[in-house]
Design brief:
Elements (H helix, E strand, L loop, with lengths): L3 H8 L16 H7 L19 H27 L13 H24 L1 H4 L1 H20 L4 H29 L5 H29 L2 H10 L2 H10 L7 H6 L3 H11 L5 H24 L2 H10 L1 H19 L2 H6 L1 H7 L5 H4 L1 H21 L1 H26 L15 H20 L1 H4 L12 H17 L1
Length: about 475
């Protein structure tokens, strides 16, 4: 590192309140020649940086398959589980159904914590490959299940893939994405999650209407193998994150990767962007070299900037799950069936499609409007809708002792009120939590980005499991 003493001060993690002064310069050469501390990457913009190249569109699309898998494998359970019948030796009890459904969440907790914390050592690509292998193995085990324990094991294995993908895919995209369009790029992965849920609901509705149940549920789970194998094959063509390449001493490969992403950038811009990567990687290296795992874990909570960032992103992740939206998706087929709708899975398309549509709108405007402003504006709408849902369900189930009973004819007006409240709830959720929770890496210092993402995403799954 040039001017070692000065530069070490800028990355020294032992300084409790060290702050980097951000200055704006019009001249790239001025920054490169005179600024010796950590440079804010937002200051360095390539010409036409807001124009995404075809090459980068390919990178995003392949990486975002992880989001699709996340959505499909969490969404398909609502359609497939009611079709199981006695295929596992007996009719599933409510407790068994809940355990099978929760299996993915439990596996995801382990996947997020393990693959997330190992992302620097494994690299982003290999961590995603492991997630794909878990996706594939889990789907095969579930589709071939003939007992409850076997399907639970399959759900646990599949959950490892879901949890790993939830951490690594947005982290990988954020580290590759041009600063000017980072929100939209990470949003693509976020959009693919509800898109996968829509596809799962649509296929599930079709299978419930026209495919024998004893084989239909197996095919629904087995179909998850297709995108996971596709991504596994396409990962060969994706570069490793420039930050990981620099961490491994492969600066030439990192430069080539940046050059492909910023197709019209000058060599000066590429050199400066590479310098920024190297400076932040230096901070990571210092932390890993000077501190043991236990000391690093302690530092996350004793160093105020780290603690504040981790608590903030973990809170957003947890609250996104505590809204109950994913629980609604898990049980949408069952809930809508009990409400008297003939094809519960078809009705389950309502929240899935609405969520996907408004995630698309949210990710399109997030860079202009801002993450915080979107949440401040629309979260109150979720509160109103949730209150409406509680009141509607209270009066709907009052004659049945607070329970949704099969074959009971509920009043059409109250069923409509429940559906209306769900619609009003999903719209602001899609505009906010559904995609904003996956921008966590933006708020984390690079030296703790992988570990911080793992912690926050683990909190996400713990909140869902709770």
């Amino acid at each position: 590192m040039p001017d070692g003493d000065k530069n070490q001060t800028s990355v020294n993690i032992s300084k409790e309140d060290s702050k980097v002064e951000i200055e704006h310069y019009e001249s790239v050469s001025h920054i490169a020649n005179t600024y010796d501390g950590l440079i804010d990457e937002n200051l360095v913009r390539a010409e036409n940086e807001d124009k995404v190249t075809p090459y980068f569109m390919f990178l995003i699309s392949v990486a975002a398959i992880a989001g699709f898998l996340f959505g499909y494998d969490t969404g398909i359970i609502g359609a497939a589980l009611p079709m199981v019948g006695t295929a596992l030796g007996h009719t599933l009890s409510a407790t068994e159904s809940e355990i099978i459904t929760a299996g993915t969440t439990i596996g995801a907790i382990f996947g997020a914590s393990i693959l997330g914390t190992m992302a620097d050592k494994l690299g982003r690509k290999w961590a995603m490959v492991i997630s794909d292998i878990a996706f594939t193995a889990g789907a095969i085990i579930i589709a071939a299940s003939f007992s409850v324990p076997q399907i639970i094991v399959g759900r646990l294995v599949l959950g490892v893939g879901v949890g790993g993908a939830a951490v690594i895919a947005p982290l990988y995209i954020a580290e590759l994405a041009p600063t000017a369009v980072r929100g939209r790029c990470v949003g693509v992965n976020a959009f693919f999650i509800p898109f996968g849920q829509v596809i799962a609901s649509a296929i599930g509705a079709g299978f419930q209407a026209g495919v024998p149940y004893h084989i239909g549920w197996r095919i629904l789970f087995a179909l998850g193998v297709v995108p996971s194998v596709a991504q596994l094959c396409l990962m060969h063509y994706l570069p490793e994150s420039p930050r990981v390449l620099v961490l491994r001493g492969k600066e030439d490969e990192a430069r080539a990767c940046l050059k492909k992403i910023y197709g019209t950038a000058t060599d000066d811009i590429i050199d400066l962007k590479l310098r920024i990567v190297k400076q932040y990687v230096a901070a990571t290296t210092v932390m890993q070299r000077d501190l043991s795992f236990t000391e690093r874990a302690k530092k996350y909570w004793t160093h105020k900037p780290y603690r504040r960032a981790i608590i903030s992103v973990s809170g957003v992740q947890a609250f996104g799950q505590l809204t109950g939206f994913n629980t609604l998706l898990y049980y949408s087929g069952t809930i809508f069936g009990l409400l008297g709708l003939k094809n519960g899975s078809a009705a389950g398309l309502i929240p899935s499609c609405l969520n996907a549509a408004f995630v698309f709108i949210g990710m399109s405007i997030v860079d202009k409007v801002g993450r915080r402003k979107l949440m401040v504006i629309f979260i109150p709408g979720m509160m109103v809708a949730f209150t409406w849902t509680i009141i509607s369900f209270h009066y709907l189930t009052k004659p049945t002792g607070g329970l949704l009973l099969e074959d009971y004819q509920y009043p059409t007006a109250l069923v409509g009120s429940v559906l209306g409240s769900i619609v009003l709830f999903v719209i602001p959720f899609g505009l906010t939590y559904s995609h904003i929770i996956w921008y966590q890496s933006e708020f984390l210092p690079l030296e703790i980005r992988a570990a911080g993402s793992a912690i926050s995403t683990t909190c996400c799954w713990l909140a869902l499991g709770g």
